[in-house]
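Re: [ENG-882] Designed sequences occasionally contain unexpected residues at chain ends

Forwarding the minimal case from QA. Structure tokens:
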């Protein structure tokens, strides 16, 4: 009888020991899962290949002037009140101008008739700023931060690191592409825009220059 009681005591003790060990292992596993989740959330705050960059549009002048102002036809996905216009063709230093934009149906009609298109439905502008520029890129002023030196805008600083962003253009068969990178190594894209050119161009873009490749 005593032997049976001792045997039952040993069995119960072993069962309790297994239960305690199992709980401890479960707690340790839960701690590992919690730690892993923390690591994942920290690493995925801003993935470099995400589509978190700013998207822009383009503009073209068509030789129409009025009161010493030149008409610029703007291709953009939405109506914007203020635009940041970037001209990279005039010199090695980009020309960056900020302009207010008012939607004018008559101006938009002129643009669409000139290009035989209905794409210029959002914005067009007459301005003195376009007397010495033919075409370029445009971004919504609300999306842009600037790199300023001696009170003058000399570049973009979209990631607010107090360094001028790297602006790079390249061409595909019928388009020119602008990418704004955080540095010359093209580590992270900050903004992108393209403009269609009705001509056969030498293709100079690599895979990295197209956002869909990221």
């Amino acid at each position: 009888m005593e032997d049976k009681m001792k045997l039952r005591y040993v069995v119960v003790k072993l069962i309790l020991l297994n239960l305690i060990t199992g709980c401890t292992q479960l707690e340790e596993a839960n701690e590992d899962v919690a730690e892993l989740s923390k690591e994942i959330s920290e690493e995925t705050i801003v993935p470099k290949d995400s589509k978190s960059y700013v998207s822009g549009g383009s503009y073209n002048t068509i030789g129409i002037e009025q009161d010493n102002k030149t008409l610029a036809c703007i291709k953009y996905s939405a109506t914007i009140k203020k635009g940041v216009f970037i001209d990279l063709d005039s010199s090695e230093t980009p020309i960056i101008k900020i302009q207010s934009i008012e939607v004018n149906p008559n101006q938009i009609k002129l643009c669409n008739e000139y290009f035989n298109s209905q794409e210029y439905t959002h914005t067009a502008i007459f301005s003195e700023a376009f007397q010495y520029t033919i075409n370029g890129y445009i971004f919504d002023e609300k999306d842009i931060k600037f790199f300023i030196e001696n009170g003058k805008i000399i570049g973009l600083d979209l990631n607010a690191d107090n360094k001028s962003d790297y602006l790079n253009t390249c061409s595909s068969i019928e388009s020119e592409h602008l990418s704004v990178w955080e540095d010359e190594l093209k580590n992270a894209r900050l903004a992108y825009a393209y403009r269609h050119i009705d001509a056969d161009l030498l293709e100079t873009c690599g895979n990295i220059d197209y956002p869909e490749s990221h």
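QA comment: On inspection the terminal residues look reasonable. The two ends are 76 Å apart (CA to CA). Proposing we downgrade this to a documentation issue.
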